[in-house]
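tool_call predict_complex ligand=D-ribose
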Amino acid sequence: MKKVVIGNDHGGVKIAEKLGKHLQELGYSVNWLGTRTEDPVDYPDIVKVTTDEYKKGGYEFGILCCGTGIGVTINANKTQGIWCALPQNCFAAKATKEHNHPDFIAFGGRIDYPEDPIAILDAFIDAENLQEPRHLRRLEKLKKLDGHF
Ligand code: RB5
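tool_result ok
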């Protein structure tokens, strides 16, 4: 069974729950490590737990949610070996999977998205990591920044 790990702070509870339920309906095994209430927590703590779990392996991808999606994205991208995208819409979700091969995608629970976040997630799931040389060349350059080499 395909697995996804989800982490969220208090600003991302509702959207994380909505996305997690959708993934379960699609047949994914969802490991939800986020907070379940709107009592304030610190998103760096959530990102740490969620990315540590992801690094154990076996996950198709991960999802991080906070109020804007920005805090968790900054934090995840400062985590060794983790790349996190913050798609604005379905086009960006498809393109980031194809071009950037991210480990995580992030969503903002307080953001008024132009498209349903479920459709944005579906666009990400339905896309594939393109292996065209131009994308791989660019990703190799990014990996050097990440200390992979
Ligand atoms: C919490 O109030 C909020 O700062 C957090 O959810 C997130 O939006 C940070 O980027």
